[in-house]
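Lecture notes, unit on protein representations.

Consider one protein chain, 401 amino acids long.
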Amino acid sequence: MPPIKGRYKYEVPYRSQSLQHSKFDPGSGLAYTEVAFRSTPMCADWVWKTRGMTTEIAMYRSPGPGCSTLRNMAIRKACLSMTDLIPDSFEGVEWQIGQQLWSRIVAQEIDSLYAWKVFAAAYPREGDKSLRRRYQIIRKPNMALGDYIKPLVSLSFQWIAFLTLSNITCSRHDLINVSKLTNIGALTIGHGVEAPDVGLEDSVVRAWGRAATENGAFSRLRVFACRAQRAITSQVFDYLSQFPSLTMFVVEDCNIGSQDKPYAKAQGFKYRSGKDLSEFLVSGGATNSSWDSVLHAYFQLGSGLRDAIPNGDSVEGGNIPHVLHFSLGGAPPDAEVDSVGSRSMRCFYRCKSHSEGRQHLPTTEKRPPTNPHPSQPLSKKIAMKISSGRDPVDLMMEFWF
């Protein structure tokens, strides 16, 4: 069936799929066919969606006396034309002016993902917190996984993507094609990911490793986390060694643990769990036990270990201050981690040397004071930590630079 054209410029066309069922009506004795139509979007409409509307901007009238200033008129016109702007539109425009426009866009809640990408590309080294870190959550996906990944790609690494998948069903082919997200910095395969029945398997990680070796994929990936993925085995360590920037392999509620330390050690990975892991995350800047905070702590710690990886300097690109968090699936990205249970979180970190004397990790003296109650979960340990008063985003970016 040919695509249906939209009536407006950015209206999303849909592709219809019909399901036919032959039925029989015992009352009348007649047979009939029941047809149900299901439509799926043919393009990424979520890239343009916003909470706010431009109606208020279009209907604005100056309270007087006199007309509006040229600055306010220019800002309103730019807001109305946001879908037509590209990064080159801001060539020669200083951040002091661009910040005024971005602040108005955020205040009007018309900061779509497209608008964020334009400003992130136009001002790669500038921006406030709302520009440096972007959150995008799709709780009920209705498109193929590859259609969600395409808008996240930045071939010139103008931003780093943190991708979290949970409670979705996708094809094995789509899962393997996550390797096309060249600017991915952290990947989380969470609860309920099925491809199509068993979830993440060793063969998928093997395909990712091959893509990293042959096509230069995952060149910025520092953190790879698996939550409730019990089909993977210790064999994955053979493939993880092919990821050039990977420093942190995190598992939670998986069939990988302390019994796999010999396999991990053979590929240059060391092991942390329990109290030792909690203190490790606190030293990385974790402020609570939410997954978002823990993931950023892992990324920061992984950035500190990048010099310990063979050829680590060659895989570090430019200075990337912008981070795009993209969560696909029903589970919220801030689902708390299990730090004390029987299937608690475990971390395998990668170092250049296999000897304990050469590991590039924060020493015991540099860590915050140890919690006197080791049985307490991570959230309670972090709550007892004296706050340094620094933004975790700033801490993370120090390691990125």
